[in-house]
Amino acid sequence: MSSIAEASLNDLDGIRAPRFPRKPKGITGRSIAIIVFLSICAAFFCVPLYVIITTSFKTMDQIRQGDIFSLPAPFTIDAWWSAWDNACSGITCTGLKVGFFNSLAILFPSLVLSITLSAVTGYALALWNVRWAGGFLFVLFICAFVPFQIIMIPLIILSSGLKVYGTVWGIALVHAVLAMPILTLIFRNYYKGIPQEIMSAAMMDSGSFWRIFREIILPMSGNILIVVLILQITSIWNDFLLGLTFGGLGTQPMSVVLANVVITTTGVAAYNENMAAALETAIPPLVIYFVLGRFFVQGITAGAIKG
Questions:
Q1: Residue 179, CB-side half-sphere exposure with 13 Å CA sphere
Q2: How confident is the model at residue 93 (pLDDT cuts 50, 70, 90)?
Q3: Is 68 exposed, middle or buried (0-12, 13-18, 19+ CB in 10 A)?
Q4: Which parts of the sequence belong to the ABC transmembrane type-1 domain (predicted)?
Q5: Rounded CA separation 91/275 (Å)
Q6: Which residues contact 192 (CB under 8 A, 6 or more apart)?
Q7: φ, ψ (nearest 5 deg) of residue 25
C-alpha cells in the first residue's frame, strides 16, 4: 500500500497546473485620460505656487521684464526680510512680525478653549447618561452649518458686553464658540468607540467624572487630539474674517496684516515683497501639517469621523 501511495504522490507531483500568462496591458485611452486630467489638476495648483516662490526671490528690475516663469537672476532674499520687518500695513511700516506674534497670541488660547470644551462635552455625551443628550446633539448638528455672517452681530454684542471686543481673548473666545459644534461631534463619535466595559469598571472603582476623563479617556485620545489640533491650527491661523471683525488695531492676526500689506501701495507695487509676505504667512500651518500629517491620517483611520 505504501508503494502505491508513493507512486500516486509522485504522479501528482509530476502534474503541473496549466499556466495562463496574462497578456501585458498596453496604454489605454482611459489611462491616458486619467494622466492628463491629474496633470492638469497638479498644474492648476503648482504653476501659481511656482510663480509666487520665484517672484519672491527676484528683484523688481527682473519682475518688470515680464517673464514670470523665469528663475531669479540674481537670487536675493531682500524681499523676505523687507516683508517681515518693513512692510507697510496702512500707515504702519512694522512688517509682518507684529501680525505673526498676534496670531500666536490668538492661537494658543483658542486651541485650549475650543479643544478642552469640545473634548469634555463629547466625552459626556458619548459615555454618560446625559439628560436631553439627543436634543443637544441635534442643536449642535444644526449649529455646525450656520454661517458665521448670520451670528456675527450677536457675537459682537456679546463680546462687547463681556468687555473683550478688540482683544486677543475676544478673538479666541469667538473661535472656541464657532468650533465647538463640529469638534464636539468629532469627539463624541470617537469616544463612542470606547467599550462600555471600561467605563463600567472605572465607575465600580469609584471613578468620578473628571477622574475617569483625566486618567482613562485622555490617554486614549492621542489620535483624535492630533486630528483636531491640525484642523484648528489651520483654521485659526488662516482665518481672516474673525480677525478683521473682532481684532483691534494692535491685535490683528497675520492674515489681516498680509491683506493690508498687499493692498497698501506707496508709489510702485512691490510684487516680490507681496509674494514673500504671502509665503511667510502660509509657512507655519504647512510646517505643522508636514510634521503631524502622518498622525492626522492615523487619527482619521482610528475613528475620528466614523458614525
A1: 30
A2: confident
A3: middle
A4: 100-292
A5: 20
A6: 126
A7: -85, 135
Query: Tell me: the pLDDT tens digits for 53-74?
Result: 999 999 999 998 888 889 998 8
Q: Which residues contact 86 (CB under 8 A, 6 or more apart)?
A: 93, 94, 95
pTM: 0.80
Domain ranges (residues) in the chain: 97-304
Superfamily of domain 97-304: MetI-like (1.10.3720.10)
Q: Give the model's pLDDT for residue 247.
A: 84
